[in-house]
User: What shape does this take?
Amino acid sequence: MTTPFQPRKPRQFVGTYRPKIEGYQKASGSSEFLDDIASGLRFPGMIHAKVLRSPFPHAVIKSLDTSAAEKMPGVHVVLRYDDPEIASLKPTTNSWTSFNTVSYDKMYYPNHRDRKVLGSKAHWAGDQVGAVVAAETEDIAYEALKSMVVQWEQLAFELDPIEAMKPGACIIHPEINPQSNILPSEGLCGPDVFRVRGDVDKAFATADEIVEVRSDYHFADQGCLDTRGCLLNWHKDELTCWTNLYQADQTRMYISQMLDLKLHTVRVICPYIGGSFGRSNTGDQSFFIFTAIAAKRAKRPVKYKHTRQEDFHDTRNYVDWSLKMSATKDGSITGCYFNGIGDAGAYSEHTIAALKYMTGFEMDECLLYHIPNMKMEGYGVYTNKIPSGCKRGIGNNQLNMALFLAVELMAEKLGMDPIDLTIKNFSHEWEKPPNKSVTALLREGSKRIGWENRLPTNQGPLIDGTRKRGFGFSLHDGWHTAWQEEPRGMVQLGLKLNPDLTVILDAPMAETGCGSNSCAVWACADHLSFLGITPEDIKWVEKADTETGLKDMVQTDSSVSFLHAELMPEAAVKLKLKILEMATKKFEQPVENLDIDDGRVFLRSDPDKHMTIREILWNETLVPIPILVEKLTPLDKTGVPFEATFAEVEVDMELGKIHVIKIVQLNDCGTVMYATGAEAQLIGGQAMALGEALTEEIIYDKSTGLPLNFNWVDYLIPTMLDMPEVEPVAMEVWEGAGEYGACGIGESVTTCTARAIANAVYNATGARVDSTPFKPEKVLAALDAVDQAGHSEKEEVGN
Amino acid sequence: MEKKGPDTAKITINGRVHEFCIGRDIEPSETLSYLIRERLGLTGTKIACDQGACGACTVLLDGKAVLSCMTLAIEADGHEVITVEGLGDNDPVIRAFAEQSEPGYGTAMQCGFCTPGFVMATKSLLNENPSPDLSEIKQGLSGNLCRCGCYPAVARAVERVVEQEVK
Assistant: This one.
C-alpha cells in the first residue's frame, strides 16, 4: 500500500483524491462514443463506407473493374481512384500537425506529402487504394470490394530499414525522393546531423571510459478499444463530421482545406473517445475525405469505422539508436554521439519528429543539456510496412532505451552507482546538475524499490535453482509544461453562471480518458468557491464542437489537465465583477464597497449587511452570466520536471521468461491536478509499457511482406493477470510558472519502463536485451552470450 | 415459456420479452451484439475487437458472462439476456467502478470504453462466487482488456463490492 500523495499547496478540489466526473456515466454505459451516435437508429438511412486494401506490400493497380460492385444491390456509391474528383485531390499526409491548428501550407512536413487520398499505388499490405464503396451494410460493402477485378503489378519490396537505405533497394516513394528511401530533411527537424555541440571526437579521444551501445524499439500498436472512424453527413452544402480522432478544430481545417470548403460550412464534433495514446496525432486522415465525397454522392449519412484488423493503421515509430558515450573517471559524462535509423514504414507521418525533433529539440534541451559535447544524427527510411505514426511518448521511449543502457554500462565501468552517475550529469537547460527533481525522484524511487538490495551485475544467487533477481531504473525528462505548449496559441475557456448558481463550463476538449475534464471542473470549483458551490454544481460541456463551442484543446498528453485550469483565476475575477455590478443596485453602493464570499455579497464595511448571490441573480432577468477568457499559457522558461521508473524482476534462466515483480513509477508533476487521475496514469502507463516491453509485437512474414497478427488474439496486450505490483508516486518538486505550473504526465509514464526492466535483467543475469519486446527467445540468446563470454574468459585465464 | 412460431426467436432482454421474426426482424447470421446495439439501441455494450478477444461486449446470458460479439442472436432464443442497461441505477458494481478513488490505485476507468464489459464480467463472477479473493478476481476478469491499464483500480473496486456485500 502506497503512501497517499500530499499536495505541496492544499486546495479544496485540485490535487485531491476523487471519483472522475463522468465515472458513473462510463461505468453504466451511458456515455456516448462515436459508435453510439453513428448508428442507423440515430441517423436513418445511414450507410457504411469501406475501402479496398492492398493484399501486397508494394504494388500498382494496372486495371480495376468495378462494374459488378456498381450493380450490386445495396451499394450506393463506388468511388474510384481515377474519378476526376478523387484524382484532383491534393497530395497530403496524415500528420499535418500534432496539436495546434494548421493549414495545408503550414503542415509540419511539407516535404513529405507522400499520401494520396485514394491512389493506385500500394505501399504496404493493408494500404487503402483503388476504390471505396458505400453500401447499406458493412457486409455488402465488403462483398462489393471483393467483387472488384483488380490487376496488380507487384513490385519488389523492402521490410528492413537498413536494407532499404542501401543503393539498389526498390524506391518506395520516388515522388518524395527519386534516389533513395531516405526521407528528405524537413525544416522543423533539421538536417541529417541535427544537433552538434562542442566536439565529440575530441571528447572521445580524451575520455577515461567509452561505452558503445545499440538498441531498438519496435513498432507497437496504440490498441485503442474504440477503433478510428467518422460519420459524415451533408445538409445541402453544409457538412457535419462526428469523429473519435481528438482534434475538432484541426479536423475542420483539414476537411475544409482538402475539399475547398469554407470553414463555416464544416462542423466537427468529437464525443467521448475510447482511448487515443498518440494515434490521433495522425488525425488528418484520408478517410474523412473519401467518406465526405461518398456521403455527398449518396445523399446519405455515411459511417466509416475500422475493424480491429484495419485499426492496425499506424504505430509507434521503430528507431534503431546507436550511442557512443564518453566519461571521465570522476563520473562526468563528456560526450554523446547518437546515430538513429527510424523506420517510417510506408508513409513518413511523424517519423522525423520521433527521430529528430523529440531528441534534438526536446531531450537535448531538457535532459542532456549539460553534456558538453553532443552530436546527433538521424535518418528516416521508408519501408513497405505499416506506417509508423505516433504513439504515447513519441521518440522518447526509443532514445531512452539506448541512453540508460549506456548509463548502466558506464556506471559499471566507472565503479559508480548508476543513480549517482545520473544525478551528476542530467538536467535541463535552466538548472545545473544536480537537478532537484532528478535527485528527489531517484532517492524516493530507490527507497521504494529497495535499491539497497541490488547486488553487482550477475552476482545474485540462483533462486529455486532457476531464477535470478535484479533491479533496474531509468530516468527521463517530463514534457508538455506550459511554456512548451506555446505553439497551440490561445487557450479559450467559457463559463456560464446560471441564476440558480450552477455553472456550464465550456472547457473544450475531446475526452480520451486522461481526466482533463475532471481537472477543469476541480479548478473551476476551487476558483468559484466564492459562489459556495461544489463540483456537482458544474456541468462540463462534453462534446468538442466547432460550431457551438470554443477552440478545443487537443489531448496531446495530459497537458490539457492544466491548460484550461490556468485560465480559471481570470474567469473568476471577471465573474465576481459582473455579480458585484449587479449587486450595486440592490445595495445602492459602488462595486468597490462590496465583496463576495461563500455565496453571499456583503458590504465591506459591515459584513452583516449581505444578500445571497442567488437572491440577487434570481431577481434579475434570469439570463445566465457569460464569461469568456482567452489567454496564452505562461511562457516563462521554467525548465521541466522529470520522471523515473524502477523495476524489480526475476529472470527464469531456463525459460528465458522475465517476471516483473514490482514497478515504482515516479513523476514530478509540478502540481498534481487530480491525485486519483494522476495515479491512474502512472499505473496505467505501466500496463501499456509492459506490453511493449514484453509481449506486443507486429510480426511480418518476410517472404511475402504480409503482417501476420493484426488481431487481438495474436497481438498480446497485457491483461489483469499480467500486471505486477505497481506503486504510483506522484510528486511535486519542480515549479512551473502560472497558477499551477503543472506538467503533463500521460506520455512520459511509458518512457522508462522497457529500459528499467532491461537494466534489471542485466543486473540479475549480465544478459543484455536491447531490442523490444524482450521475448523469451531473445532473453535466452542473451543468456547464452553471457555464458559464452564467461567460458572464453575462463579459457583466457586458463591459458 | 409460451409457444412460439418456428421462425421466431424469443429473447428476454433486461426483463422485457422480445419476439423476433428470423429473416425479418433479425438475420440468422447476426450477432447478439448487433441485435442489442444496432436494432435495440442499447449502446452501453461496446464493440472493440469483434473477435472475442477483449471482453468489451460482455453481457449476461442466464446470469453468465458471454461475449455478445461471438454469440449469435438466435442462440439467445429462449434465454434471458442482461446488458449494462438492465442493471439498475444503484447497482453496486456500477457504483463501485464509478466511485473508485482510493489512494494508490487510480480510477477504475480512464477512457471507459471497456468499463461496461468489466462491469458485466464482474456481475457474472459474483453470481458464481459472491466473495472472490484478489487472485480469483484477477482470474475472473482476465478476459477483459483495459488499454488504459486501470487493472489495480478495477480489482479494488470489485473487492469493495465484496466487502460491502459481506457487511
